[in-house]
Amino acid sequence: MSMQSPNSTLNPGIRSNRLAAKDQTDPKDIKGTPMLKQYHAIKAEHKDCILFFRLGDFYEMFFEDAKVGARVLDLVLTSRGKDPSTKVPMCGIPYHAAENYIARLIKAGYKVAICEQVEDPAEAKGIVKRDVTRIISSGTYLDENSTDSRVLICLNPNKKDIGISFCDPTLGTIQTNEIPFHTPKIIQLLTKLPVYECLYPESKTEAMKELFNHPSLKLKNIVLSPYDDWCFNPDIAKKSLCEHFTLANLHGFGLEEKPLATASTGALLEYLRHMNKQPLQHLDKVSLYTDEEHVFISAAAFYGLELNNLVKTLDHTITPLGRRKLYSWFYHPLKDIKQIQNRQHATKILKDQAGIQKDLKNLLSKIPDLEKNISRLSCGYIHAKDLLAIRNTLAELPNFKKIIDPLSNENPIFQMEDIPDLRTYLLKMVNEDIPLAKPEGKVICRGVHDDLDQLRDIQENGRQWLKKLQEEEIKRTGINSLKIGFNKVFGYYIEITKVHAKNVPSDYIRKQTLVNAERYITPQLKEYEEKILTAQDKIINIENRLIHEIRQEILNQSLALHQYCENLATLDVLYSFCVLAQSPNYIVPTVTQESVIDIKEGRHPFVEKNTEYPFTANDTLLDCEENHLIILTGPNMAGKSTYIRQTAILVIMAQVGSFIPAQSARVGIVDKIFTRIGAHDDISKGQSTFMVEMNETADILNNVTDRSLVILDEIGRGTSTYDGLSLAWALAEHLAKGKTRTLFATHFHELTSLAELFPGVKNYNVAVKEWKDKIIFLHKIIPGSTDDSYGIYVAKLAGIPEQIIARARHKLTELESTSRGRNPIDPNEEQLNLFTPTPDPVAEEIKNSLENIDIQNLTPLEALNQLNELKRKLEKDC
Q1: Cβ count within 10 A of residue 118
Q2: How far is CA 38 from CA 33, 34, 44, 260, in A?
Q3: Which pLDDT tens digit goes with each residue over 753-773?
Q4: What are 242-261's pLDDT values in tens digits?
Q5: In DSSP terms, which residues pair with 520 in a beta bridge?
Q6: What's the first-to-final CA gap in the chain, in angstroms?
Q7: From the DSSP assignment, how many helices (H) and strands (E) are in the chain?
Q8: What pTM value is reported for the model?
Q9: How far apart are CA 279 and CA 270, in angstroms?
């Protein structure tokens, strides 16, 4: 199967797997060396990849690949051949340093095909056989220097629905489901998952192009990889999945009635196996992904609340497993109160057990990236460090159980199952003192294999054996100057000076004549020479067989190992929660089914940690009856945006199961979180800042429920004042009539009148103190409204020249005096009469003319003349 590549029709803002070679020739037409013919034959099967072609201790790149490699990797571009007309561009890298170069190519959007020698050069007849042993893309790259998740997703749409399957190749589970295609759910999923590459049917390129033009997705720079359509055939996919998981059907995965999900899962698995050239036993589970039990966080909310920065601030995990789990929990807050309380309870248990905290920290600090170690073995990377990591991590399992087993009686989240057979096997087989710099021949423990032990004895005790043989031969021959030596050309020998030639035993065989001495060999020494010179090769051959057996035993237990990883990750997150819970003034929020969000003295965890000033805590009260819409006004820079974001962040923390920074908190379960924060253009789609703002607002209005939380910041500021105020008013009025809990920060002070029109609408503002010619921002949220934004003062703080500030103040006074006396909002008026209209001169003239007519004394003819005159004026002015 060949991997297909996107073409130039895709949006330039979206990364695609770039074509490495533009002018590949049919191998049958190639004139050149056998090696170049072999190169072209392999390259023809991997046109969309940079081909790393193994030659000795180097990976070489040729032709167009060499030009790309030299440019991206900053390598010297050389050439092969002497004839200028037939020179072949080339560059290369040492094979042992390949990972760093591969990482740079992957980051630049290329795929890399690793072509290795697949037979022993000593046994080769003609050119050494070579083949591609793995292909690396953005979504299949196992980054050794990162602990972050790296998700590969597969999308399989039709006109109505879309099959979704995704996995981190490091982990063992493929998650899948079907959802309606044209819904915010797909955008939300792609936004919060760390997706690096998206696979989809080649025939669906246009649909995918439209999907990935969404502003939130373009920020992620996801690589798009069209794939052969036949791989998405549900019947083929079903057969492939049943064979991989050794199942008769897919009922156990819940896929029997989900053909789109089945097809996407089968295509994803086939792609991963094709890329790694391995059966991938570590992919041992398929589960239905559902967000029904998790809070829906809109794409705009994900970015507007800066969840990535939030998690970094709150992260006290110790292991890569725990770090990935922490991000997963925060991206998927819970709606089930029992699960939330379970996490809270577990955190409190650890918080109250200082000794257990210390022991747990010490044990967790010894845990490597076990999930990555397992996946590397499954993908064909066989390295001693992975075997040692798995061995040592399993060795700690009894120590973990000793700590947490007593806690499991209080909370089942602390349960952990042992893997005794595999643990005992690895402790017996894998040497705990492997020298990772040069592990060859030192991976397997002594006592496992008799021949291996004997060969090691020959290696390790060879010098002592030769010394003993030399002593025995001196005693036998009476020649005290006899010595045993080694020469790379002639091997081991016994050297005797010519003075003692008459005393040489008859079983000595002359091997080499020197000026003053003769060198001999004996059958005993020849036998030993063969043993010691072949010992290393034999040791490595035996070890390799045993290592493959160990690898298979590990992969056979992948389900149990992945459960162990899950337990370790959960323990690490709970430990992180425990550390956070001990921060000053962090409390356990009460999570309920009520609609109320009542937070006393709440604080923004990220801002609090990253500001040099004391953070001002604030209260929040929202419910679905008396306080469901808060209109928040106040000056620029006073903290409105921080406050409204803070509320959403504290709700997320509460529903994740974490302690939160507050004096007290009661949080009624939220099912969805929406935000409209910030401003940005989408130039590629011809969408202005205001259009993006309206799109996000429409998303909120079309999907909000009475259990949602909505955060709005400055709606309507991207258009004219009247348009913006009208839209903001209409939106706020719509929310006021509903029951959705909403925080609405605005500079349109006219909206504060809604509190007089609708029950449940409350006005709050950010307090300031005016002192002399200065404004002091108190950052305190207080009841009531304000009608001053202090924008000119903020402009002064920003460094706007004084003459412009003075002119602005003069103009502000002029405008305020012009509008003084107007009735800004009459609650009894219709909404369209909110603004004072500009007087119409024609209407004024007609009005004055009518007022001056004496109707009582007007004859019919005069009335007709007056009417004709008014009509003439109206036609003239219009």
Answers
A1: 12
A2: 9, 6, 10, 40
A3: 999 999 999 999 888 776 766
A4: 999 999 999 989 998 999 99
A5: 494, 510
A6: 73
A7: 29, 29
A8: 0.82
A9: 9
